[in-house]
Specification:
The structure holds two protein chains of two kinds. By secondary structure, chain A is of the alpha+beta class. Chain A folds into two domains: 67 residues, no CATH class; 169 residues, Beta-Lactamase, CATH 3.30.450.70. The relative contact order of chain B is 0.21. Chain B contains four helices and six strands, in the order E-H-E-E-E-H-E-H-E-H. The chains are: A alpha+beta, B alpha/beta. Chains A and B meet through helix 5 of A and strand 1, strand 2 and strand 3 of B.
Chain lengths: 272, 165
């Protein structure tokens, strides 16, 4: 005889129990899922927390992270000494030059004032009309003329750029010889902190402006007054500041052409 | 075209200027004129279709390398140390001289040791020098006959191009 007892699923009570126990959790999970999937709802919940943290950072960043940031800056500065020096050197040079020029101008004005005061008491007028200095007369008779400008890598003496109004001998060899002469003179006199600033022969002068990784050598003919020399130095510093921001690791034709065009533009066109 | 600085160094009278003249101008002069300071000149060579401009500094010879101003070696991609096969005094201290050049030169610069004046010695003498020298030479040359002079600079140029790539 067949057993007529109905079949009972043994899982049913367990499922029921699970439903009773977990229904609240499931609803909560569903709500969380809805929030997570809905960008606006999520933003509404998270934004205040993020904002709170940002505000905390704004208020406390220097205190909390100063040490780490300082350490990072120290490392970065140490690793990039040459690059930083290249960038600030022309700026510093200009500032120092400006300061010295200003101080000299003040000194000159003081002297002028003193002379005027002293001699006015004695009633001597007219004989101190301004006369041209010998330097100015010379400069007018034989004006300064820039013949060539070289941009040279400091250590190797490799030519980085050249602008010239005349055809000289091999300009690479000239750049190399300038560097060799500079090295020889600086080494011979053991002046570690000082550098060769000019070379002169007869009416021809080579004016040198030194920078940490390179130098500019300007060949000049004619008489150069102190004022013209000062103006030239300022222009060289401005050129360095604006055009020689970074030196390439390899000296190629492309590098040289680029710098040569810049030198031409700065020293042989109307740029002032 | 890339440009590289090469230094020719070694004791006085070993033939640096003769190597320089032979390489740049293909000429040799028997008269000995000591170099004062430095002479710089350039030669462009072509290696595997690539042009290389070699700026060569022929510096005054000194008995010892520490007498040469250090600043001459700054920025040099290649250093050619020349000695004279006929004068032991020019190579007897070669290991220390090369060590010194490695210390003061750029860490990446390539150093070549050159045994010059091969035209003045025979095979037996060359073997004798090879047995006693502390550091083997890279190339044996004669600035007078031109033996291996172009090859020396071409090989150095090839290594410089490889290093730059």
């Amino acid at each position: 005889m067949r057993d007529s007892k109905p079949q009972v699923d043994s899982h049913q009570p367990l499922d029921r129990l699970r439903e009773i126990l977990l229904s609240e959790d499931r609803e909560a999970l569903q709500r969380i899922e809805q929030i997570l999937e809905n960008r606006e709802a999520l933003s509404e919940r998270v934004s205040p927390i993020v904002e709170e943290h940002l505000e905390f950072l704004r208020q406390n960043f220097p205190k909390e992270f100063r040490e780490v940031v300082d350490r990072q800056i120290d490392v970065k500065l140490k690793d990039s000494q040459d690059e930083i020096l290249n960038v600030i050197y022309p700026v510093l040079g200009r500032m120092i030059r400006k300061y010295i020029t200003h101080q000299f101008q003040m000194l000159k004005e003081n002297i002028d004032r003193q002379i005027k005061k002293t001699f006015s008491r004695q009633g001597i007028f007219g004989i101190f009309r301004r006369r041209k200095s010998s330097e100015e007369i010379l400069s007018e008779a034989d004006p300064m003329h820039i013949e060539e400008v070289y941009l040279i890598q400091r250590d190797s003496g490799l030519l980085l750029g050249i602008a010239s109004q005349q055809q000289t001998m091999d300009q690479d060899a000239v750049a190399g010889m300038f560097t060799a002469i500079k090295a020889f003179v600086e080494d011979a006199f053991r002046r570690e902190q000082e550098e060769l600033a000019s070379i002169e022969y007869e009416n021809y002068k080579i004016f040198i402006q030194n920078f940490p990784a390179y130098y500019l050598a300007v060949a000049i003919s004619g008489s150069v007054s102190a004022k013209e020399k000062d103006q030239l130095a300022s222009r060289l510093l401005r050129f360095a500041e604006e055009e020689v921001l970074q030196l390439p690791s390899e000296v190629t034709d492309t590098v040289r052409t680029g710098f040569s065009q810049k030198l031409e533009h700065w020293f042989f066109t109307d740029k002032t | 075209m890339i440009s590289k600085k090469i230094i020719l160094t070694g004791s006085f009278g070993v033939g640096k200027t003769s190597l320089f003249n032979q390489f740049i101008y293909n000429r040799f002069d028997d008269k000995y004129l000591t170099t004062i300071g430095v002479k710089v000149n350039k030669k462009v060579i072509e290696i595997d279709g690539k042009e290389l401009s070699l700026l060569i500094w022929d510096i005054a010879g000194e008995v010892s390398q520490d007498k040469v101003p250090n600043s001459y070696f700054l920025g040099a991609s290649g250093i050619v140390f020349v000695f004279d096969l006929t004068r032991p005094s020019t190579y007897k201290n070669i290991a220390n001289e090369i060590k010194y050049l490695q210390e003061i030169g750029d860490p990446n610069s390539i150093i070549k040791v050159v045994a010059n004046k091969s035209d003045l010695v025979d095979e037996e003498k060359i073997n004798e020098v090879a047995a006693e020298i502390q550091r083997p030479w890279d190339v044996i040359t004669s600035a007078k006959t031109g033996e291996n002079v172009q090859e020396l600079f071409r090989e150095l140029g090839r290594e410089l191009i490889d290093a730059a790539e």
